[in-house]
Amino acid sequence: MKKNASSRKPTEGNYDKLYSRHEFLRGLSLSAAGSVLLNPLVGKLSAEVKGHSQPMRLLFVIEGNGCPPNQVHPTNLNLTPIGKRLQTVEESFQAKDLPKALKPVSDYANQMLILQGISGRICGGGHSTYFGALGCFNTREGKHVLGPTLDYELGRHNETLFKNISLGISQRSHLDIVFNSSAAGANNPIGTICNPQTAYQRMFSPIGDRKNLAVKTHLLDYVKEDIKSVKRRLGSVEKDKLDRYLSAYEEIGQRHSAIADLDPEFKNRIDPITEKYRSSNPVDRLECHFELATSALVTGLTNVATIASGVGHQDFSIVFDKL
Protein backbone atom coordinates (compact mmCIF):
# COMPACT_ATOMS: atom_id res chain seq x y z
CA MET A 1 0.00 0.00 0.00
CA LYS A 2 1.29 3.41 -0.91
CA LYS A 3 2.21 5.52 2.10
CA ASN A 4 0.80 8.96 2.53
CA ALA A 5 3.46 11.57 1.76
CA SER A 6 2.96 13.26 5.12
CA SER A 7 3.99 10.07 6.95
CA ARG A 8 7.42 9.88 5.34
CA LYS A 9 10.40 10.84 7.45
CA PRO A 10 11.68 14.21 6.23
CA THR A 11 15.06 14.37 4.59
CA GLU A 12 17.91 15.84 6.58
CA GLY A 13 17.67 19.15 4.75
CA ASN A 14 13.91 19.49 5.27
CA TYR A 15 14.28 18.30 8.86
CA ASP A 16 16.73 21.09 9.63
CA LYS A 17 14.57 23.68 7.96
CA LEU A 18 11.41 22.47 9.68
CA TYR A 19 12.92 22.83 13.14
CA SER A 20 15.22 25.79 12.59
CA ARG A 21 14.54 28.29 15.37
CA HIS A 22 14.71 31.16 12.88
CA GLU A 23 12.23 29.53 10.49
CA PHE A 24 9.99 28.44 13.34
CA LEU A 25 9.77 31.84 15.02
CA ARG A 26 9.40 33.74 11.76
CA GLY A 27 5.88 32.37 11.40
CA LEU A 28 4.91 33.36 14.94
CA SER A 29 3.77 36.68 16.31
CA LEU A 30 4.90 36.66 19.93
CA SER A 31 4.46 39.34 22.54
CA ALA A 32 7.50 40.91 24.17
CA ALA A 33 6.96 38.57 27.12
CA GLY A 34 6.66 35.57 24.82
CA SER A 35 9.91 36.45 23.09
CA VAL A 36 11.75 36.60 26.41
CA LEU A 37 10.40 33.33 27.81
CA LEU A 38 9.67 31.16 24.79
CA ASN A 39 12.48 32.01 22.36
CA PRO A 40 15.13 30.24 24.49
CA LEU A 41 12.85 27.22 24.99
CA VAL A 42 12.22 26.89 21.26
CA GLY A 43 15.98 27.07 20.75
CA LYS A 44 16.41 24.13 23.13
CA LEU A 45 13.79 22.09 21.29
CA SER A 46 15.36 22.88 17.92
CA ALA A 47 18.78 21.73 19.13
CA GLU A 48 17.37 18.52 20.63
CA VAL A 49 15.49 17.61 17.46
CA LYS A 50 18.69 18.04 15.45
CA GLY A 51 20.56 15.84 17.91
CA HIS A 52 22.80 18.66 19.14
CA SER A 53 24.07 18.40 22.69
CA GLN A 54 22.85 21.09 25.06
CA PRO A 55 25.34 23.46 26.72
CA MET A 56 26.08 22.67 30.34
CA ARG A 57 24.24 24.87 32.82
CA LEU A 58 26.35 26.11 35.72
CA LEU A 59 25.51 27.73 39.04
CA PHE A 60 28.42 29.09 41.09
CA VAL A 61 27.68 29.70 44.78
CA ILE A 62 30.41 31.69 46.53
CA GLU A 63 30.32 31.94 50.33
CA GLY A 64 32.43 34.95 51.26
CA ASN A 65 33.20 33.97 54.84
CA GLY A 66 34.36 30.47 54.03
CA CYS A 67 32.97 26.95 54.38
CA PRO A 68 34.37 24.55 57.01
CA PRO A 69 35.44 21.46 55.02
CA ASN A 70 33.92 19.01 57.52
CA GLN A 71 30.45 20.41 56.78
CA VAL A 72 30.57 19.03 53.22
CA HIS A 73 32.72 15.94 53.87
CA PRO A 74 31.19 12.43 53.57
CA THR A 75 30.83 10.81 56.99
CA ASN A 76 32.37 7.51 55.85
CA LEU A 77 35.71 9.14 54.99
CA ASN A 78 38.45 10.61 57.16
CA LEU A 79 39.25 14.27 56.56
CA THR A 80 43.02 14.65 56.30
CA PRO A 81 44.21 17.76 58.21
CA ILE A 82 45.98 20.58 56.37
CA GLY A 83 49.72 19.96 56.43
CA LYS A 84 49.33 16.19 56.12
CA ARG A 85 47.84 16.14 52.65
CA LEU A 86 50.75 14.62 50.75
CA GLN A 87 48.97 13.12 47.76
CA THR A 88 45.76 13.17 45.76
CA VAL A 89 43.26 10.53 46.90
CA GLU A 90 40.02 9.51 45.21
CA GLU A 91 37.30 7.90 47.34
CA SER A 92 33.67 6.89 46.84
CA PHE A 93 30.58 7.54 48.93
CA GLN A 94 26.84 6.91 48.89
CA ALA A 95 23.82 9.06 49.64
CA LYS A 96 23.64 7.77 53.22
CA ASP A 97 27.19 9.06 53.80
CA LEU A 98 26.42 12.70 53.03
CA PRO A 99 26.74 15.18 55.91
CA LYS A 100 23.73 17.15 57.15
CA ALA A 101 24.46 20.15 54.91
CA LEU A 102 24.20 18.00 51.76
CA LYS A 103 21.26 15.79 52.77
CA PRO A 104 18.75 17.92 50.80
CA VAL A 105 20.52 16.95 47.54
CA SER A 106 21.11 13.29 48.45
CA ASP A 107 19.03 12.16 45.44
CA TYR A 108 21.90 13.33 43.25
CA ALA A 109 24.71 11.65 45.19
CA ASN A 110 25.61 9.41 42.24
CA GLN A 111 26.25 12.54 40.13
CA MET A 112 28.11 14.45 42.81
CA LEU A 113 31.79 15.35 43.07
CA ILE A 114 33.07 16.76 46.37
CA LEU A 115 36.49 18.29 45.81
CA GLN A 116 38.45 19.06 48.97
CA GLY A 117 41.87 20.57 49.58
CA ILE A 118 42.16 23.17 46.81
CA SER A 119 44.60 25.89 47.85
CA GLY A 120 43.46 29.50 47.77
CA ARG A 121 46.90 31.01 48.30
CA ILE A 122 47.02 32.38 44.76
CA CYS A 123 43.99 34.52 45.66
CA GLY A 124 45.64 36.01 48.74
CA GLY A 125 43.81 34.15 51.50
CA GLY A 126 41.84 35.75 54.30
CA HIS A 127 38.11 35.68 54.98
CA SER A 128 37.19 36.75 51.45
CA THR A 129 39.06 36.91 48.16
CA TYR A 130 36.59 39.02 46.16
CA PHE A 131 37.02 38.44 42.40
CA GLY A 132 39.94 36.11 43.10
CA ALA A 133 37.72 33.14 43.97
CA LEU A 134 36.55 32.84 40.35
CA GLY A 135 39.50 34.64 38.77
CA CYS A 136 42.49 32.94 40.45
CA PHE A 137 44.35 36.17 41.18
CA ASN A 138 45.03 38.36 44.21
CA THR A 139 42.75 41.40 44.19
CA ARG A 140 44.44 43.10 47.17
CA GLU A 141 41.15 43.30 49.09
CA GLY A 142 39.09 43.89 45.98
CA LYS A 143 41.08 46.88 44.73
CA HIS A 144 42.65 45.24 41.67
CA VAL A 145 40.67 43.26 39.08
CA LEU A 146 43.35 41.61 36.96
CA GLY A 147 41.21 39.76 34.43
CA PRO A 148 37.92 38.00 33.67
CA THR A 149 36.40 35.52 36.10
CA LEU A 150 35.47 31.94 35.26
CA ASP A 151 31.71 32.51 35.22
CA TYR A 152 32.02 35.28 32.63
CA GLU A 153 34.41 33.27 30.44
CA LEU A 154 32.09 30.25 30.42
CA GLY A 155 29.00 32.34 29.74
CA ARG A 156 30.21 34.71 27.04
CA HIS A 157 30.32 32.00 24.36
CA ASN A 158 26.67 31.00 24.84
CA GLU A 159 23.91 32.25 22.56
CA THR A 160 21.63 33.23 25.43
CA LEU A 161 19.86 36.47 26.30
CA PHE A 162 22.14 36.90 29.32
CA LYS A 163 25.72 35.67 29.08
CA ASN A 164 25.80 35.28 32.84
CA ILE A 165 23.74 36.48 35.80
CA SER A 166 25.33 37.67 39.06
CA LEU A 167 23.15 37.82 42.17
CA GLY A 168 24.05 38.04 45.84
CA ILE A 169 23.61 39.36 49.36
CA SER A 170 25.57 41.94 51.30
CA GLN A 171 25.66 43.43 54.78
CA ARG A 172 25.12 46.75 52.97
CA SER A 173 21.45 45.96 52.43
CA HIS A 174 20.67 49.51 51.31
CA LEU A 175 22.64 48.97 48.09
CA ASP A 176 20.94 47.41 45.07
CA ILE A 177 24.23 46.49 43.40
CA VAL A 178 27.76 45.83 44.66
CA PHE A 179 30.93 44.89 42.79
CA ASN A 180 32.66 41.98 44.48
CA SER A 181 32.87 38.62 42.69
CA SER A 182 32.54 38.59 38.87
CA ALA A 183 34.42 40.46 36.14
CA ALA A 184 34.40 40.70 32.35
CA GLY A 185 38.07 41.63 32.18
CA ALA A 186 40.83 43.67 33.79
CA ASN A 187 39.35 46.61 35.73
CA ASN A 188 35.92 45.64 34.40
CA PRO A 189 33.87 44.24 37.31
CA ILE A 190 30.34 42.94 36.83
CA GLY A 191 27.70 44.17 39.24
CA THR A 192 26.23 41.72 41.75
CA ILE A 193 22.52 42.51 42.11
CA CYS A 194 21.53 42.31 45.78
CA ASN A 195 17.93 43.53 45.62
CA PRO A 196 15.64 40.73 44.32
CA GLN A 197 13.15 43.26 42.93
CA THR A 198 15.92 44.90 40.91
CA ALA A 199 17.10 41.49 39.69
CA TYR A 200 13.60 40.48 38.66
CA GLN A 201 13.00 43.75 36.84
CA ARG A 202 16.26 43.37 34.90
CA MET A 203 15.57 39.77 33.93
CA PHE A 204 11.81 39.74 33.36
CA SER A 205 10.67 43.37 32.96
CA PRO A 206 9.12 42.77 29.49
CA ILE A 207 6.75 40.21 31.03
CA GLY A 208 4.75 42.12 33.64
CA ASP A 209 4.24 45.57 35.06
CA ARG A 210 5.82 46.71 38.31
CA LYS A 211 2.63 46.22 40.32
CA ASN A 212 2.78 42.49 39.66
CA LEU A 213 6.55 42.35 39.99
CA ALA A 214 7.73 38.80 40.52
CA VAL A 215 4.99 37.66 42.73
CA LYS A 216 1.25 38.06 42.30
CA THR A 217 0.90 36.09 39.07
CA HIS A 218 2.81 33.11 37.68
CA LEU A 219 5.10 34.38 34.95
CA LEU A 220 3.68 32.00 32.37
CA ASP A 221 0.22 33.53 32.83
CA TYR A 222 1.50 36.49 30.83
CA VAL A 223 2.28 34.34 27.79
CA LYS A 224 -0.61 31.85 27.64
CA GLU A 225 -1.61 32.86 24.11
CA ASP A 226 2.01 32.70 22.92
CA ILE A 227 2.33 29.19 24.34
CA LYS A 228 -0.78 28.10 22.42
CA SER A 229 0.69 29.52 19.19
CA VAL A 230 3.97 27.68 19.69
CA LYS A 231 2.28 24.37 20.54
CA ARG A 232 0.16 24.46 17.37
CA ARG A 233 3.36 24.23 15.34
CA LEU A 234 4.98 21.41 17.31
CA GLY A 235 4.69 17.65 16.98
CA SER A 236 3.61 15.50 19.93
CA VAL A 237 7.17 14.71 21.06
CA GLU A 238 8.22 18.36 20.97
CA LYS A 239 5.01 19.38 22.78
CA ASP A 240 5.87 16.97 25.59
CA LYS A 241 9.37 18.42 25.86
CA LEU A 242 8.04 21.98 25.92
CA ASP A 243 5.57 20.99 28.63
CA ARG A 244 8.41 19.62 30.75
CA TYR A 245 10.33 22.89 30.46
CA LEU A 246 7.24 24.93 31.31
CA SER A 247 6.36 22.67 34.25
CA ALA A 248 9.81 23.12 35.74
CA TYR A 249 9.43 26.86 35.36
CA GLU A 250 6.02 26.92 37.06
CA GLU A 251 7.11 24.91 40.09
CA ILE A 252 8.41 27.99 41.88
CA GLY A 253 5.08 29.79 41.77
CA GLN A 254 3.13 26.65 42.64
CA ARG A 255 5.34 25.98 45.65
CA HIS A 256 4.70 29.43 47.04
CA SER A 257 0.97 29.14 46.46
CA ALA A 258 1.00 25.91 48.48
CA ILE A 259 2.90 27.60 51.31
CA ALA A 260 0.41 30.46 51.42
CA ASP A 261 -2.54 28.03 51.43
CA LEU A 262 -1.29 26.50 54.67
CA ASP A 263 -2.48 29.64 56.44
CA PRO A 264 -5.49 31.20 54.66
CA GLU A 265 -5.76 34.04 57.18
CA PHE A 266 -2.14 34.99 56.59
CA LYS A 267 -2.72 34.88 52.84
CA ASN A 268 -5.63 37.32 53.19
CA ARG A 269 -3.55 39.76 55.22
CA ILE A 270 -0.45 39.83 53.08
CA ASP A 271 1.09 38.27 50.01
CA PRO A 272 4.11 36.40 51.47
CA ILE A 273 5.91 36.24 48.13
CA THR A 274 5.62 39.99 47.60
CA GLU A 275 6.95 40.69 51.08
CA LYS A 276 9.82 38.26 50.62
CA TYR A 277 10.99 40.04 47.48
CA ARG A 278 10.77 43.36 49.31
CA SER A 279 12.55 42.07 52.40
CA SER A 280 16.02 43.26 53.39
CA ASN A 281 16.60 40.08 55.42
CA PRO A 282 19.61 38.25 53.90
CA VAL A 283 17.97 34.81 54.18
CA ASP A 284 14.87 36.00 52.29
CA ARG A 285 17.02 37.64 49.66
CA LEU A 286 19.19 34.56 49.26
CA GLU A 287 16.10 32.40 48.73
CA CYS A 288 14.77 34.83 46.12
CA HIS A 289 18.09 34.79 44.27
CA PHE A 290 18.12 30.99 44.11
CA GLU A 291 14.60 31.10 42.66
CA LEU A 292 15.56 33.71 40.07
CA ALA A 293 18.73 31.86 39.07
CA THR A 294 16.78 28.59 38.76
CA SER A 295 14.14 30.26 36.58
CA ALA A 296 16.77 31.76 34.29
CA LEU A 297 18.67 28.47 33.94
CA VAL A 298 15.58 26.32 33.37
CA THR A 299 14.12 28.58 30.69
CA GLY A 300 17.42 29.14 28.88
CA LEU A 301 17.71 32.88 29.54
CA THR A 302 21.26 32.05 30.63
CA ASN A 303 23.45 28.99 31.08
CA VAL A 304 25.66 30.50 33.79
CA ALA A 305 24.63 32.12 37.07
CA THR A 306 26.59 33.20 40.14
CA ILE A 307 25.25 33.73 43.65
CA ALA A 308 27.71 35.64 45.85
CA SER A 309 26.77 35.20 49.50
CA GLY A 310 28.56 37.98 51.37
CA VAL A 311 31.69 38.14 49.21
CA GLY A 312 34.23 40.81 50.16
CA HIS A 313 35.24 42.45 53.44
CA GLN A 314 32.57 45.14 53.05
CA ASP A 315 29.85 42.58 52.47
CA PHE A 316 30.46 39.40 54.47
CA SER A 317 29.32 40.35 58.01
CA ILE A 318 25.88 38.81 57.57
CA VAL A 319 23.71 37.21 60.25
CA PHE A 320 21.65 34.25 59.04
CA ASP A 321 18.89 34.41 61.62
CA LYS A 322 16.47 31.80 60.32
CA LEU A 323 18.28 29.12 58.36
Give helix and strand order, one letter per element, not per position. Answer: HHHEHHEEEHHHHHHE
- Kindly report the average pLDDT value: 75
Unreliable parts: 1-19, 207-218, 255-272
Rg for CA atoms? 23 Å
The largest pleated sheet is described as: 3 strands, parallel
Describe this protein's structure:
The protein is of the alpha/beta class. It has two domains: 27-66 and 127-309, no CATH class; 67-126, no CATH class. It has helices spanning 12-18, 21-26, 32-49, 132-135, 150-155, 196-204, 224-232, 236-261, 264-269, 272-278, 282-299; strands spanning 58-63, 165-169, 177-185, 188-193, 304-309. A hairpin with a 2-residue loop joins strand 3 (177-185) and strand 4. Helix 3 (32-49) crosses helix 8, helix 6 runs parallel beside helix 11 (282-299) and helix 8 (236-261) runs antiparallel to helix 11. Residues 1-19, 207-218 and 255-272 have low confidence and may be disordered.
Key features?
5 strands, single chain, alpha/beta, 36% helix, 11 helices
Write the layout of secondary structure elements.
Elements: H1 12-18, H2 21-26, H3 32-49, E1 58-63, H4 132-135, H5 150-155, E2 165-169, E3 177-185, E4 188-193, H6 196-204, H7 224-232, H8 236-261, H9 264-269, H10 272-278, H11 282-299, E5 304-309
Concise summary:
By secondary structure, this protein is α/β, with parallel strands linked by helices. The protein contains eleven helices and five strands.
